[in-house]
Amino acid sequence: MTPCGACKYQRRRCGSDCVMVSYFPAESIQRFAYVHHVFGGGNVSNILRSTSPDLRKWVARALAYQAEARVRDPVHGCVGLIWEQEETLGILKEKLEKAKRELAQYVGPDVMQKMIGQCSSDPHAKTVDLKAPLSAPVDFDLSSWDPFPAWESSSSRRLPSQADAKGKTIAPPS
After folding, report:
1. Residue 64 belongs to what domain range?
2. For the chain, which terminus, N or C, has the lower number of CB atoms within 10 Å?
3. Does 16 fall in a domain?
4. What's the number of CA atoms in the CB half-sphere (13 Å) around residue 36?
5. Which long-range contacts (CB under 8 A, 24 or more apart) does 164-173 make?
6. pLDDT tens, residue by residue, 94-119
7. Is residue 148 within 8 Å of residue 61, measured between CB atoms?
8. A Pfam family this protein belongs to (predicted)?
9. Quick count: other Cβ atoms within 10 Å of Cβ 136?
10. Measured between alpha carbons, how far is 91 from 151 in angstroms, rounded to an integer?
11. Is 160 domain-assigned?
């Protein structure tokens, strides 16, 4: 049996009782390296063991995303990404309002109201109610999910290097 990414990174024997084998396959050793660097291997194992089996893949996904965000931005982590997205959303809303005002000058208020009504009744325009209670997680196929997309930002974040500020490696030796 080939070891999972977690056991491979920690240079351990991967037994049949390994809780991380489903969530950190051998191909995702870098993913576990980030999680191990931020949370610690024992903590991740304890978190996964204390989580119900149907939620474990979501917990592993969240840990991987948060660890990657923390490695990329040690100060703000994933909160920095949220701030960035909210700032972008605010700018886009301002641009949309400006475009609506400019368009209203040419087509008149009656046509604008009709256009706004059509846009709000569009079934493809989905809105998310953030105050609504969370529903049970939907079972998605996570085999093609990549928690580490290339993040391009206006603040030009640096990508994580092979060593952190203290010189400890966070990537497995090659």
Report:
1. 5-77
2. C
3. yes
4. 21
5. 164/37, 164/71, 165/74, 170/33, 170/34, 170/36, 170/37, 170/71, 171/30, 171/33, 172/8, 172/9, 172/29, 172/30, 172/33
6. 998 898 888 878 887 777 777 777 66
7. no
8. LOB
9. 7
10. 19
11. no
Do the Cβ atoms of 80 and 73 come closer than 8 Å? Answer: yes
Token pair for residue 102? 């400019």
Token pair of 96 as six digits: 């949309």
Count of residues in the chain: 174
Q: Answer yes or no: is 109 within a domain.
A: no
Tens of pLDDT along 40-79?
Answer: 988 999 999 999 988 988 999 899 999 999 998 889 988 8
The pTM (predicted TM-score) of the whole model is 0.57
Q: Are 63 and 35 in contact (CB under 8 A)?
A: yes
Question: Contact at 8 Å (CB) between 45 and 33?
Answer: no
In a domain, residue 18? The reply is: yes
CA distances from 32 to 21, 64, 164 (A): 11, 7, 16
* Cα-based angle 36, 42, 45 (whole degrees, multiple of 5): 95
What are the Cα distances from residue 85, in Å, to 89, 152, 153? Answer: 6, 11, 9
